C-alpha cells in the first residue's frame, strides 16, 4: 500500500490528462503491481475518454477565453463534451449566474470543433 505523506499541490485536470499521468505511473511502477483502484480508474478513463490530452488542453484553453468561464467548468465541459443547451445548463446549475442562449451557443461551437 502506498502511503501519502504530504500533499504538495492540488489541481483539477481533465480525464485525458489523468489517463496520460496514470499511463506514465503504471509504466514506471517498479513492483508491476496494479491495484484494484488503479485498474478501475484506467478502465473508466479508457472507456469514457473522448479526447487526447493535447486536444483536451487546447479545448480548455479555448473555453477559458470566454467570459463567465472558470477552469473547473472548462475541465468538466472537456470531459463531457456537451452537445445541447440542457447539458450545459446542468453544468452551470450551481453557478450564481445564468448564461444567455448566445453564450451557450458560443460554448457549443467551440466544443463542436473537438468532437
List keywords for this structure.
115 residues, mainly alpha, DNA polymerase, domain 1, 6 helices
Descriptive notes:
18% of the residues are buried. The chain has helices at residues 15-28, 36-48, 53-64, 71-80, 85-91, 101-114. The chain starts with 14 loop residues before the first helix and ends with a helix. The chain is built from 6 helices and no strands. Helix content is 61%, strand content 0%. It is an all-alpha fold and 115 residues long. The chain has 2 domains: 15-48; 53-114, HRDC domain (DNA polymerase, domain 1, Orthogonal Bundle). It is elongated, with a radius of gyration of 17 Å.
Summarize the structure.
The chain has 115 residues and is mainly α.
End-to-end Cα distance, whole Å, is 39 Å
Strand content: under 5%
Helix segment tally: 6
Estimated helix fraction: 55-70%
Integer tally of domains:
2
- CATH C-level class of the largest domain: Mainly Alpha
Uncertain ranges: none
CATH architecture of the largest domain: Orthogonal Bundle
Question: Using only CA atoms, what is the Rg?
Answer: 17 Å
Q: Any idea what the CATH superfamily of the largest domain is called?
A: HRDC domain
Mean of the pLDDT scores? 90
Indicate the structural class. mainly alpha
Number of beta-strand segments: 0
Globally, the shape reads elongated
At the fold tier of CATH, the topology name of the largest domain is DNA polymerase, domain 1
Amino acid at each position: 500500500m502506498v502511503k501519502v505523506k504530504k500533499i504538495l499541490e492540488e489541481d483539477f485536470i481533465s480525464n485525458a490528462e489523468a489517463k496520460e499521468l496514470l499511463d506514465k505511473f503504471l509504466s514506471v511502477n517498479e513492483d508491476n503491481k496494479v491495484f484494484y483502484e488503479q485498474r478501475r480508474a484506467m478502465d473508466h478513463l479508457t472507456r469514457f475518454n473522448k479526447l487526447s490530452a493535447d486536444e483536451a488542453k487546447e479545448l480548455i484553453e479555448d473555453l477559458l477565453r470566454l467570459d463567465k468561464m472558470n477552469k473547473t467548468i472548462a475541465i468538466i465541459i472537456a470531459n463531457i463534451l456537451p452537445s445541447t443547451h440542457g447539458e450545459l445548463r446542468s453544468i452551470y446549475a450551481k453557478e450564481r449566474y445564468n448564461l444567455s442562449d448566445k453564450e451557450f451557443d458560443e460554448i457549443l461551437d467551440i466544443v463542436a470543433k473537438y468532437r
